[in-house]
């Protein structure tokens, strides 16, 4: 059960004295029920146990065989699924979002889809069409979730491009985009024209089947973006592997030409920038400048990056240069520079530029809130924060209670759909889960306090 008492921390602004860092000391946990805190502690402890993450899928199959699918399902719902997933039905998602709203947090819905390149069913045109329907339903659900428009005036949802266009096509496009002189044939302008007209696009590097798939993917993207704008839902496109990202960025740039025009209340289509890649700062600088020159609005979800181990393994295997930063500190410096760049852009160009600081890192969040204060960026304006549902509530709650726009990334769907997705995410975010030590300590501290009868702690 969630308690709804709301404590307002006053952050002020340049005119209201000096900047005060937010307290991420777990004080905001008093808003949560003991059951929820206990589950969070148990699940985070389990996730810090490497064999569970490494062999998650095998363990799940084994528990289904041993306990039967009903009992194993009940256990998962009470643990992993209950902690990180909103539910299966629209009703369950609404109820989860309602609880978040009472805590000052907004929803960033995510449809968990996983292409399986070796499965004929999960790479067929029918599968991508099914994903299109799921995305359109997600737009409707996102729109219906808040009776009044969200903290920055609209709702947000995540969009995974490879749910609508195959990874095989994206790899092909990526290798073509990287060639010098390919830009004319594969320009966002040319793709946008094909998207509008629905006419058969012929790209010379693709065979007939791939050309048909590209045309169908453009039509799907068109439908999602058009519906999202009509429903006032901003689409935050996920970044994936470096073998796909240039193609994903090309498709985002194509959508941006149509849905990030000034005066439309945009940006409606945002891209994600991964600070762990060596070239991200320069790419962000180039893209923000290009959007400004073209008179387009520009939206950025800034993350550190989730696919570190795989990126390095692929580079080792192919004997190519590792595209990622050499160590954690270098990634954090890169994140900090990108953050500074985007906040300065927001302060100069206002609502033409939007930013989501998608991080669980306290230093990054402190940097963002401090610079927002120094630059006079309003708490509830074009800058917002994002964390995953079930992770780092001590940060999300403190931000939300202080009046910042904070969104929890919320996957939803059936147990069968979501658990493989969650386990893969946990493998990708292994270091984050193992590093959630501070969150576990804060949870234990709050639970100990409650059990020893400390009563309700009130923060001023
Ligand atoms: C709302 C939201 C949306 C997201 N969307 C995406 C997305 O579209 N694409 C995507 O890739 N990720 C996405 N992520 C995940 C994100 O990239 C990070 O994996 C996750 O947030 C952890 O980073 P952090 O800043 O929160 O925490 P921290 O614990 O401070 O940072 C951990 C991160 O640091 C980096 N790192 C760790 N060790 C090293 C090392 N030895 N060398 C170099 N770098 C290192 C890695 O990127 C690692 O994930 C999203 C996260 C959120 C909250």
Give a structural overview.
The protein has 460 residues and is α/β, with parallel strands linked by helices. The protein has one domain: TIM Barrel (Alpha-Beta Barrel), CATH 3.20.20.220. It contains 18 helices and 8 strands. It has an 8-stranded parallel β-barrel with strand order 1-2-3-4-5-6-7-8, surrounded by 8 helices. Helix 11 (280-294) runs parallel beside helix 13 (328-349). The model is unreliable at 1-15 and 456-460 (pLDDT under 50). Residues 238-239, 272, 274, 276, 303-308, 324-325, 327-328, 331, 358-361, 364, 386-388, 409, 429, 431-432, 435 line the site of flavin-adenine dinucleotide. Flavin-adenine dinucleotide binds next to strand 4, helix 13, strand 7 and helix 17. Keywords: FAD, Flavoprotein, Oxidoreductase, Proline metabolism. Belongs to the proline oxidase family. GO terms for molecular function: FAD binding; proline dehydrogenase activity.
List keywords for this structure.
disordered C terminus; binds flavin-adenine dinucleotide; 8 strands; 460 residues; 10% strand; eight-stranded parallel β-barrel; 18 helices; TIM Barrel; disordered N terminus; alpha/beta
Order of helices and strands: HHHHHEHEHHHEHEHEHHEHEHEHHH
Strand content: 5-15%
Mean pLDDT: 88
Strand order of the largest sheet: 1-2-3-4-5-6-7-8
Distance between the termini: 23 Å
Report the C-alpha radius of gyration, rounded: 22 Å
By CATH reckoning, the class would read: Alpha Beta
- The helix-and-strand class reads alpha/beta
Low-confidence stretches: 1-15, 456-460
Bound molecules: flavin-adenine dinucleotide
CATH 2nd-level architecture: Alpha-Beta Barrel
Largest sheet: 8 strands, parallel, barrel
Helix content: 40-55%
Extended strand count:
8
**Which fold name fills CATH's third level, the topology?**
TIM Barrel
Please work out how many helical segments DSSP would assign. 18
- In total, how many domains does the architecture comprise? 1
Shape: globular
């Amino acid at each position: 059960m969630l308690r709804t008492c709301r404590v307002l921390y006053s952050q002020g602004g340049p005119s209201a004295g000096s900047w005060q860092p937010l307290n991420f000391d777990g004080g905001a946990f008093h808003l949560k029920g003991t059951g929820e805190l206990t589950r969070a502690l148990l699940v985070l402890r389990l996730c810090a146990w490497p064999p569970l993450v490494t062999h998650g899928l095998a363990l799940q199959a084994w528990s289904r065989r041993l306990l039967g699918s009903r009992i194993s399902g009940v256990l998962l719902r009470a643990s992993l699924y209950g902690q990180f997933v909103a539910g299966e039905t629209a009703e369950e998602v609404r109820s989860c979002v309602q609880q978040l709203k009472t805590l000052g947090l907004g929803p960033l819905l995510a449809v968990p889809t996983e292409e399986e390149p070796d499965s004929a069913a999960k790479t067929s045109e029918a599968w991508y069409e099914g994903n299109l329907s799921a995305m359109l339903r997600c737009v409707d659900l996102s729109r219906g979730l808040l009776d009044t428009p969200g903290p920055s005036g609209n709702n947000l949802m995540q969009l995974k491009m490879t749910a609508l266009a195959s990874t095989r096509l994206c790899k092909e496009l990526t290798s073509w985009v990287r060639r010098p002189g390919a830009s004319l044939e594969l320009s966002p302008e040319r793709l946008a024209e094909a998207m509008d007209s629905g006419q058969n696009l012929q790209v010379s590097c693709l065979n007939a089947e791939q050309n048909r798939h590209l045309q169908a993917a453009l039509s799907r993207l068109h439908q999602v973006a058009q519906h999202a704008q009509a429903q006032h839902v901003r689409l935050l496109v996920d970044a994936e592997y470096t073998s796909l990202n240039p193609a994903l960025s090309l498709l985002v740039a194509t959508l941006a030409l149509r849905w990030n025009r000034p005066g439309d209340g945009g940006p409606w289509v945002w891209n994600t920038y991964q600070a762990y890649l060596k070239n991200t700062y320069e790419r962000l600088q180039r893209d923000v400048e290009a959007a400004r020159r073209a008179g387009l609005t520009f939206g950025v979800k800034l993350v550190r990056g989730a696919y570190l181990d795989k990126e390095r393994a692929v580079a080792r295997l192919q004997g190519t240069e590792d595209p990622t930063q050499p160590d954690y500190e270098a990634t954090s410096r890169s994140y900090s520079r990108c953050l500074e760049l985007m906040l300065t852009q927001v302060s100069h160009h206002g609502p033409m530029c939007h930013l989501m600081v998608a991080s669980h890192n306290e230093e990054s969040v402190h940097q963002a809130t401090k610079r927002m204060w120094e630059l006079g960026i309003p708490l509830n304006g074009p800058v917002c924060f994002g964390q995953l549902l079930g992770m780092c509530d001590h940060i999300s709650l403190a931000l939300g209670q202080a009046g910042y726009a904070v969104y929890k990334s919320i996957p939803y769907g059936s147990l069968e759909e979501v658990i493989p997705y969650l386990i893969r995410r946990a493998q990708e975010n292994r270091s984050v889960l193992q590093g959630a030590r501070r969150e576990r300590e804060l949870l234990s501290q709050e639970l100990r306090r409650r059990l020893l009868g400390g009563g309700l702690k009130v923060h001023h």
